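Dear U.,

For the methods section draft, I wanted the exact inputs and outputs in one place so we can describe them consistently. I've listed the two proteins in the order they'll appear in the manuscript figures. Please don't edit the token lines directly; just add comments below if something needs changing.

First protein:
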Amino acid sequence: MASSRKVIELFYDVVSPYSWLGFEVMCRYRNVWNIDLKLRPALLGGIMQGSGNKPPGLVPNKFLYMTTDLHRLAQYFQVPISPPADPFEAMFEKGSLSAMRFVAAVQEREVGGDKQVEQVSRELWMRIWSQDKDITQPASLSEAAMKAGLSACEVEELLKLSTSKEIKDKLKRSTQEALDHRAFGFPLAVCHVNGKAEVFFGSDRFELIAHCIGEKWMGPQPAAAKL
């Protein structure tokens, strides 16, 4: 008899390149491991403020290391990360509040899965962390969403919804839930195993996640590993 599927919640923000790595790997494994992956868009700025943490981009030596580290990780995980020309502006001056509210709106309206949430999130990461494009303006969000397969009418509705109190509260709740799991950064994977929440931070804990849920880590490209 097959064991029951383990629920893994993945808290993320598209302003975070490390979240993109964790997101892509977990999406690759969602049909390989016996898991039910729950995508949890949240706000990294709220996590930093709520936990008292300081972003690595604000610590000079961490920022220099991050630049080199992301280049290596992009190659290893095969995710097309190319930092924007001005990472400080993209991450801290512009931020991702409007983008994450938009993703939350997509999630609120999507029925029967989270394919749209996955695709819209990916397109937003592509814009900020691969193409050096804006993710704050309505036109930018529209372009990303339509590239993800949404219609112009759907996008117009979602843009309106994203500014509503309903969605603002939804994003706040998700961020608070991550803080309740003692989050201090993203990505944050919460594995629910035998009635207990096991929390993993970062994009370098996949072997431990696999061990925790009784699965096998087959590297960043499990489909290729199985051939």
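Second protein (the one for the lower panel):
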Amino acid sequence: MAPLGELLAGVRGVLLDISGVLYDSGAGGGTAIAGSVEAVARLKRSRLKVRFCTNESQKSRAELVGQLRRLGFDISEGEVTAPAPAACQILKERGLRPHLLIHDGVRSEFDQIDTSNPNCVVIADAGESFSYQNMNSAFQVLMELENPVLISLGKGRYYKETSGLMLDVGPYMKALEYACGIQAEVVGKPSPEFFKSALQAIGVEAHQFLSM
């Protein structure tokens, strides 16, 4: 195996995942994964540029950052690339008015978005809001559109909390895709555009970063 210095030659930045890498979410704010607080601090003291990338869609960036800071992480809201703000930018650029099937914890991210007379659906990890009634309402909106647009904040199958594994947005996204005969537009990991926006934020080229 090549020496660490050789492996890092040309690397200028690091993209860090949050859930399952830095901490496990759950009741009481979750728990930091052993060694993660110290690892982030060491990276920030190094010559490398650090950016946090997350598919978290149950919390606003402000709430997520506050939670991580309480766990001891050195992190600010401006260092986090998250799907909800990215989706809002897309909605504004394309004149889309979403029907929101999302968690109440992230709803504040969409406060400046027009949701009247919806011409698309935005789906995220809605947790307990993934009821039959709410899924069917989203289905009905899509089926009434001539050119249905479904935007999904991530497409994960499941994630880990301190209480165990939890279904993510992916299975519900797939249900709407199947029912409506459409393909969702994914905003968040693993979308190349999502990673590209994170790299642009720290001024690093695609061949100059590590992802963890």
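Candidate sentences for the figure legend, describing the second protein: The radius of gyration is 18 Å. The CA atoms of residues 126 and 142 lie 18 Å apart.

Thanks,
Y.
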